[in-house]
Amino acid sequence: MKVISGKLKGRNILGYNIVGTRPTMDRVKESIFSMIQDKVSDSVVLDLFAGSGNYGIEAISNYAKLVYFNDKNKECLKINKKNLDNFEVLNQSILLNLDYLKCLEYLKDKNIKFDLVFLDPPYKLNCLNKILEYLTKNQLLNINSYVIVELVNDNLKDDYDGLVKFKSRNYGEKKVYIYKYGG
Fold first, then answer.
1. How far apart (Å, rounded) are the C-alpha atoms in residues 8 and 135?
2. I need a labelling partner for 2 at 20 to 30 A (CA). Which of 9, 53, 138, 180 fits?
3. Mean pLDDT throughout 78-99?
4. How much is the pLDDT for 146?
5. What's the rounded mean pLDDT across residues 133-160?
6. Beta carbons of 61 and 6 less than 8 angstroms apart
């Protein structure tokens, strides 16, 4: 895995082989970031199922202001921190080691709002509807924010109380949806 654009372009990201993860292919990541490039600079980002930090690091490379990396797996966060140290961007990062619901509750309690949210959970969790509803119901999104969802099985709605799907792409069995929040 490599950083595909921005100030860290070409740098290797460690962690493609962490047990229990399935890193996003570079071509999928490149396509996603070409669709959202105007939203990344100066944004506050949540990578809720961060793994090695692939999405969040790409956001930092494209001048995101701050990225919250969360993963329940301590090995993932250890690799993620090593990547952030290697790239000297730990000061633009907050690492959390929580279950995804506990993380969302923590962020809500801290009144943190996001411009970009990346959701790439383990497919067996079947939690995306719950997360998308939670984001809007608990006002975790700024107006005109984007939520990027990577999934296999499509059981998502087109609208979650103002969070509207406006782009989608297929990559074999994998799908990527981009939602925009209008408030």
1. 30
2. 180
3. 96
4. 98
5. 94
6. yes
Task: Give me the CATH number covering residue 102.
Answer: 3.40.50.150
Q: Which residue reads 């990344």 in tokens?
A: 40
Place 38 in a pLDDT band, splitting at 50, 70 and 90: very high
Which residue segment(s) compose the domain that 45 sits in? 6-14+21-181
Residue 143: closest CA among 95, 107, 181, 112: 181
> How many Å apart are CA 144 and CA 178, to the nearest integer?
12
Largest CA distance in the chain: 40
The total domain count for the chain is 1
**Tokens 């949210």 sit on residue:** 117
Of 59, 45, 46, 52, nearest in space to 78 by CA: 52
Comparing 5-14, 74-83, 166-175, the range with the smallest average pLDDT is 166-175
